[in-house]
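Issue: ligand-bound run for adenosine-5'-triphosphate - logging full I/O for the record.

Environment: standard queue, default settings, no custom constraints.

Inputs:
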Amino acid sequence: MTLSYGGEPVLEGASLDVEPGQFVSLVGPSGSGKSSLLRAVIGLQRPLSGTTDTGLPANQVGMLFQDDALLPWKTARENVALGLRLIGVNSQAADREADIWLARLGLTGFENRYPRHVSGGQRKRIALAQVLARKPKLILMDEPFASLDAIVRSRVVKDVVALVESEGISVLLVTHDLEEAISLSDAVYLLGQGPRAHIIQRYDVPIPRPRDPVKSRLHPAFTPLHAKLWEDLSKEVDHRAEEAA
Ligand SMILES: Nc1ncnc2c1ncn2[C@@H]1O[C@H](COP(=O)(O)OP(=O)(O)OP(=O)(O)O)[C@@H](O)[C@H]1O
Ligand SMILES: [Mg+2]
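Outputs:
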C-alpha cells in the first residue's frame, strides 16, 4: 500500500497480513506511519495505490484510536452501550453489557462518569470496553495499553488475550513496547523509517497458545527474538538520526 498526506509520502509498498484468529503487532519508529496504516485499514485514509481488504463488514471491525474517540457528552456506560446499540442490541441489554465490560476493566463505580471526569488510563479502558463489548472479528489497536499502570495493564492485557483466543478475534496491534509485541503476538512486523516507509521484516513468534502474557516472556524463543527486534529497530531509528544530521 502506498499512502501520502497532501503529496508528502508516508508509506510506500507497505504490506502485511493478518490471518483469521491471529494476533499481529506492528512496531516501528515514531512518525513512521503506523497510525496512518491502521487508519487506512478501516477506511479513514485512502491509499494512493494498493488495497486494505479486511474481508469483513465494517461493523465487525473495531478500532481503538491512539487518542480515544469517546463522546464527551455521554457517560462511560452510555459510551460503551452506544457501540452495542449501533449493532442492534436493545437499550436495557446494552446498558447491562456495558456495566459488565466496565467491571471487567476495573471501572465499577465509574459508569456514570463523563470522559473528562476520569483519568487518561481510565478513559483508555472505557474505549477498550466499548470495542471489546461488540465482539468484533478484527480489532485494530493503536497503543491501547500505553497509559495504564503496570498492574492494571497486566490484567487488561491478560483479559484481552483470553478473549481474543476464546472468540477467535484477529488483532492488529501498534505498540512501542517490543516485549508486549512479542509476548502477545503470533507475528510482529517492523515498519521502517519514513518517509516512504515499508515493512522491513516479519518475525514469527513460536510461543504456543493459549498464552499467559507474563509467562510467555520466559519462553526460550523470547529473549533472542527480543534482541533481534531491538537491534533491527535501533538501526531504523539510527538511520533517521543520520539523515537528520
Ligand atoms: N493528518 C495528517 N496530515 C499530514 N501529515 C500527517 C497526518 N497524520 C500524520 N502525518 C504525518 O505522517 C507521518 C506518519 O504519521 P503516523 O501518525 O502514522 O506515525 P506513527 O508511526 O503512528 O507515529 P507514533 O509512533 O509517533 O504514533 C508523520 O510524518 C506525520 O507527521
Ligand atoms: Mg501513532
